[in-house]
């Protein structure tokens, strides 16, 4: 959400604060007088500086995720930040980008560069955070997204841009493209596709050297594949001409699988930045786990049950199959000079998160993925200089290898591994110590070596670069989860995944926390450093939030990023807190930024803390709005809401169950902002939890979408019925498709009654029905244009279905002829993407009260598949999910 810069204040002085309003966001500037000193330094030799391998970075610059071509995450030439001054960090400026920022920023010549999850890339002035330029990636490239990730439907980058002369080069998070733009204005220079696999992505921040750009490819196939179709992607590493984008070479980590499942797949090259040894003409990378293996390897694993220690060869790992490996490649030609497989057999994808799922690869799998590339450093051991590379695995093991041949120099179990780590995304080194975070995502007992103290949270670990010996371990306060580290002149800088987003300055010598500050949202991207300032983005709240009834705009009711709840841990769920609202609560709660929002049938809306259930605010809807009740459902006599509130930036938007009014309240206070009447029918209500689309790349897509319903079906035969359902967009400018599904008819013209009496509803659900006229959109799934509301396509499913409550008893005179299958859709469709036989299919799926499930193609509404999941009924079948 925010981009935060901290600087060192060396004086005790007064603070003056000014707030500048900028629409829905604010920039808060804290003015603090300080003195700027010019400091002249003498340069001494470092472990990296010799004639053929000098530092290719000026002090104050941060050129990629790893900071330099050595991937050290070390602030070259930093003198202002020190253990003695860290306590003086003060906020210098904030930049509000509008969505999460999870990449380490790049810095050069007074400018800072970073991407954001709103689909933009930015250049700011390092001095005051003022915007120099911004570019929207989808508009810039013309690409369409192939990966729908964490509530995004647009092109994004999640990598630190690489500074390459007068260019910035960065990867796209689906499709697997690399893009180069002009550093001065962000205009496109070239784009190059690295991989044709539909799930390919670029998550690695590349490294630039001598006119060439080096980067790996990764994939989301592990997240999307089913047991039946896993998997085809093969990780690779490429060299591109930085001026033209031409691919110079590409080296795969696995043999060709012929585009058929049942062979080798996986081995993404995905973390941090590749490191370079100029004198040896080597570039060093590390790889992820395998997704699939041939049958003879599965059989081998079933026999040995993964009993091989990580430091020993594994008989189930064949040569030239480079999963969970560190490799040295030739800079000029991409030839693999040496490799070292570390961690043994490890074959896994998300559909197999439950290891007992039929058809999954045999386990156990230790998750020995490398989520970071190696660092290049040199040490002196017993008077002899040793050139090594060091990387830390998600298994929690740290490895130091000889740069000449890949032989193990030392290995250390720095901490427990886990699905998210272990170590991931970037260790750091000052040449004397190696620093890493240990996420401890599985919340195992983590001994804070060399002490005997234990935490179940994350921690930071310092190891002797010569031996791997653990010198200190510091637990993240409050059992938080640690992330990427940076080292600057004796100070280790680190953040935390906790919702409050704390950042820490730690004494690199002993692990003592010197300073902390809460940024307001979890910190995932790590810090860069320049001339006494550290720069950090924050966000990733999308993985922790639940924004409406469906969770996100894809309506999947799927907890993105959830790792603590699993089949193995579900039996350990226990009551944490209870909040008494005084009457029934029947809506799915919304969650955002550590607060839970929900209505109750008492007529109130509540905000409570997710950590302890303490009340933040409550508002009575009738007092808030001044509305009068038009419908009295479920034994209530006051205005109520019955649906999940929708999070819309700084607002909550929620519908009223009679009259059909939508209201927006301030998310922080609950105070009314606006209300809008959606339908004038006396029995109209709002029961749908709306969807807020806040696209930054196409302003025309922005809006709140919600449907209207009615209790007119409770009316008598004599006066039934006049209500017509509708879908409405509020607060719009102009967009794309929105998908809805509809309920049954209450009444029809006489000609339709006569048609039904003749056919007696003998039509099967998947066939057309003679009694359904065009543009009668009952029991239908529809795609509407986001801008205009035009119906782009529709599919009527289930045939004739006319019913009101007064006709509950069969044979009641004057009721519409039956039978009526109750094919109402009580839920909107979910958006998902599947890969069938190597082909990507974009689908909508919804389940009817009849018990039928339907999958339609998003482009045209044609039927992909249908299944009778179970019997229907007046209460469902399926309804509300």
From TrEMBL:
Residue ranges of the Pyrrolo-quinoline quinone repeat domain? 76-199, 400-629
Q: Which Pfam families match?
A: PQQ_2
Q: Which InterPro entries match?
A: PQQ_b-propeller_rpt, PQQ_rpt_dom, Quinoprotein_ADH-like_sf
Domain of life, per lineage? Eukaryota
GO MF terms here are: oxidoreductase activity
| Record carries keyword Protein transport | no
Spell out the SUPFAM superfamilies in the cross-references: Quinoprotein alcohol dehydrogenase-like
Report whether Oxidoreductase shows up as a keyword of the record: yes
Name the keywords, alphabetized: Oxidoreductase
Known SMART domains for this protein?
PQQ
Q: Which cofactor does it need?
A: pyrroloquinoline quinone
UniProt lists the family membership as follows:
Belongs to the bacterial PQQ dehydrogenase family.
* Protein name, per record: Pyrrolo-quinoline quinone repeat domain-containing protein
Q: Which organism is it from?
A: Lithospermum erythrorhizon (Purple gromwell)
